[in-house]
Write a structure and sequence with these properties.
13-stranded parallel beta sheet; mainly beta; Jelly Rolls; disordered N terminus
């Protein structure tokens, strides 16, 4: 929604429960969206001339003059005559009946209370904007709008006609077109008149208006505007850009302004249309049901946008969104915090008490259903003060934030969303009541999309359902399926986002089933390690850098091709690619090589152990001597370096009795014998007794350096304690991992790191083999 149009001068989850894994799934459904058509769905036939003639309260408007003649004065007079026939008490409507043909208007029509405007049919009667005389008559305005005088209990009906904004001169006939003309280009009249980008909307509704069987096409500004109204019904209308038409990207149904009780039902949106299907900012008790929305990737690409046709509920409470069919579009519940922080958006309303159920969502360009809780900081750096729907802030230094929650997402069918099927995330303070996600069917999430993405409140990876914040939310009885030969759905449920301080607590899982996932059924995303870096393919090998451990040490890596597993490397690859250390020093497998050139200081004793190895059966044992001061360490043989070049050391560690902090480092020596020792400052990697953990370190050789050694350290070790080291490496550059892949076989290769303790995956890093 364009702001100018508003006239704005981490804890782990508890009680998770287990998800069951079901058997094979059936094939993914197609979109099943009914084809776009101008034919009426539920509306009565247009008012006939004979019926109008027999009704004393009906005024037959004169026929259009034709050509470039202006019909505004004649229609304004007909409306005035009808207004004289309308009765205030009891409220009785009068009607203006438009004849077949095209009425050319140089100014918008104002409908008084209780005056209906009806055409001869959705394809028979057209109101056409003519901005050439005075475009300012349509600046921030519409072809049809209410008069300035309201009347309690009044009703108005606008029906059975087309409103055409003349965006493409002479276009907009009721002829289908695969693509709009000049997609994404500004409207023709702006180049010739100097009109602003908010010129020429379709209809602005008033209280208790019904807009029925109206076609909106070729419009620059909002197609249908509903602001601050009560009891508006929008039924059986059509939105398209047929007949060579085009329109700007304003919402097709837009507004909000605390409108109450708006019903939007049985409307259709064609793939040639532009802008969101619906976007309300600040509204209550909205009902959106049984609408059909079509979008296509081809039209989006032609306009240079990612998506269109979406349903946005921003600062909306008590909405019911049911029975809609969306092709390429999705549903968003969010606050209004992203608008300019002045009235009416100084105070923030979070999504609350909304129900999204029984919708069919196919091929969304992003998620299927998204719920976002967010707020903004006042000048003093604090979030808003909690308040209710009827509360308004009065202090200039503070704003209200009306808490959200109690949203129900239930019984939806979400197929082939490019990202997660259903996702809930945001600021914890903005939500005070649990949400429920139940009975949804999610199929092939991640289809054609990225495996990981930033929500602005942390990073999520493709899952059936993602939950980033909340206390006691329920996720139950959902069916999460990937039935593709090359799957794209990584997780059933992701709890918590990476790189976020927020995390859900007390989440209740039960009765969910999953089929065909690439990885885990439940994943704690907030505790995932970093993704592997710099994947590359050469000489039938896939290589990558070690994952940065952060606070989540890495145990190993899994490799997939097009979502199908091809390798599991519990401690990393058996050999470090491009290792500057020889095989004996890297793996300690040759008994006659002893410690293979590894040296220690006076506090450390090195020996070879042939009963335990990360790779093979042997490893290097470091034991703290009687003079140990807390740190034990070892150095590899010296390797000649190039000053300024990058080097990386790596090793896998295992404790024999108690886990300690382990670190990898580098020791550079210059020609004068001066040694520069560098090591990772990350102390989170603790070696376990039942497995192995990897540490690595990368640095550029300082000026004057002539040699480098791998430097490996274990911290806080008491006298006599032993730690094992294996898979030891020193490389030029950063690449320390590899796996063989078939030569000449195309595909997407995907690598994840996994944690030493929980097994949680990192984000996915991908490289394509053409």
């Amino acid at each position: 929604m364009r702001l100018s149009a508003l006239l704005i001068a981490t804890a782990l989850p508890t009680a998770l429960g287990a998800l069951a894994v079901s058997g094979p799934a059936s094939a993914s459904a197609t979109s099943d969206a009914p084809a776009y058509t101008l034919a009426s769905s539920i509306s009565p036939a247009p008012l006939s001339a004979a019926a109008c003639a027999s009704d004393p309260a009906c005024v037959a408007a004169p026929a259009p003059k034709g050509g470039n003649a202006d019909d505004y004065a004649a229609l304004a007079q007909a409306i005035s005559t009808a207004a004289g026939k309308a009765v205030v008490t009891p409220a009785t409507t009068a009607t203006v009946l438009l004849q077949a043909g095209t009425y050319r208007l140089t100014s918008g029509l104002k409908l008084p209370a209780n005056v209906n405007l009806r055409g001869a049919g959705i394809t028979a009667t057209t109101l056409l904007m003519d901005p050439t005389v005075n475009w300012k008559n349509f600046s921030y305005s519409f072809l049809i709008r209410p008069s300035d005088t309201k009347q309690a209990g009044s009703t108005n009906l606008v029906s059975d006609l087309t409103v055409n904004g003349n965006c493409r001169t002479g276009a907009g006939s009721a002829d289908p077109a695969a693509l709009p003309a000049q997609p994404g280009q500004i409207c023709d009249f702006r180049a010739t008149t100097g009109a602003n980008s908010s010129t020429g909307g379709g209809i602005s509704a008033g209280d208790r208006w019904t807009v029925r069987q109206v076609r909106f096409t070729n419009l620059e500004y909002f197609k249908l505007w509903i602001l601050g109204t009560t009891g508006v019904t929008i039924v059986d209308n059509r939105f398209d850009n047929w007949g060579g038409a085009e329109s700007d990207g304003e919402d097709n149904i837009g507004g909000g302004g605390r409108n109450d009780g708006t019903i939007v039902e049985n409307n259709q949106y064609d793939a040639t249309a532009n802008g969101n299907f619906l976007d309300f900012t600040n509204a209550i008790r909205t009902v959106v049901r049984n609408n059909v929305v079509h979008t296509t990737a081809a039209v989006a690409a032609a306009r240079g946008v990612r998506e269109y046709g979406n349903l946005y509920f921003e600062g909306v409470i008590g909405a019911t969104v049911t029975g809609n069919t969306l092709e390429g579009a999705h549903i968003v519940l969010s606050s209004n915090a992203n608008y300019s922080h002045v009235a009416p958006n100084k105070d923030v309303t979070q999504p609350r008490d909304n129900t999204v159920s029984g919708n069919k969502i196919f091929d969304s360009a992003t998620d299927g259903v998204l719920v976002r809780y967010d707020d903004y900081l006042d000048a003093d750096g604090t979030l808003g003060t909690a308040g209710g729907w009827n509360d308004v802030s009065t202090a200039s230094t503070d704003h209200l934030s009306r808490p959200g929650g109690n949203n129900v997402i239930q019984g939806n069918d979400i197929v082939r969303s490019r990202e997660t099927g259903i996702i809930v995330f945001g600021t914890p303070q903005a939500k005070d009541t649990a949400d429920t996600i139940s009975g949804n069917r999610i199929v092939d999430a991640g289809f054609g999309g990225s495996t990981t993405y930033n929500t602005g409140a942390g990073w999520f990876d493709t899952a059936g359902i993602g939950l980033g914040t909340g206390d006691g939310d329920t996720i139950q009885d959902n069916t999460i399926i990937d039935d593709q030969i090359n799957p794209t759905l990584w997780y059933g449920v992701q709890l918590g986002a990476r790189k976020s301080t927020a995390a859900p607590t007390g989440t209740v899982l039960g009765g969910n089933t999953t089929t065909g996932l690439i990885s885990a059924v439940v994943r704690s995303g907030s505790q995932a390690p970093e993704a592997p870096g710099n994947p590359a393919v050469a000489d039938s090998a896939l290589t990558w850098d070690e994952s940065y451990p952060g606070s989540n040490p890495v145990a190993g890596y899994r490799v997939y091709r097009n979502g199908v597993p091809v390798a599991d490397l519990p401690v990393g690859s058996a050999a470090v690619p491009g290792n500057l250390l020889d095989a004996d020093a890297a793996g300690l497998e040759t008994a006659s090589a002893g410690t293979a050139g590894w040296t220690t200081g006076s506090t450390t004793k090195a020996s070879r152990v042939d009963t335990s190895g990360a790779v093979g059966t042997a490893s290097l044992a470091l034991t703290a001597t009687a003079t140990a001061t807390g740190q034990i360490n070892t150095y590899s043989r010296k390797v000649t370096v190039t000053a300024g070049a990058t080097y990386t050391s790596v090793a896998s560690f295992q404790a024999t009795t108690t886990g300690r902090k382990v670190r990898a480092g580098l020791a550079f020596t210059d020609a004068a014998g001066k040694i520069t020792r560098l090591a990772t400052g990350n102390l989170s990697a603790t070696d376990p007794t039942g497995g192995w953990v990897t540490s690595s370190y990368t640095a550029a050789a300082p000026s004057g350096a002539v040699t480098v050694q791998a430097l490996l350290l274990v911290e806080n070790v008491p006298t006599g304690e032993t730690h094992l080291l294996d898979r030891l490496g020193l490389v030029t550059g950063t690449t320390t991992e590899q796996v063989a892949i078939p030569s000449g076989v195309p595909g997407q290769y995907q690598v994840v790191a996994y944690r030493a303790d929980s097994g949680d995956n990192s984000a996915v890093t991908t490289v394509a083999v053409p």
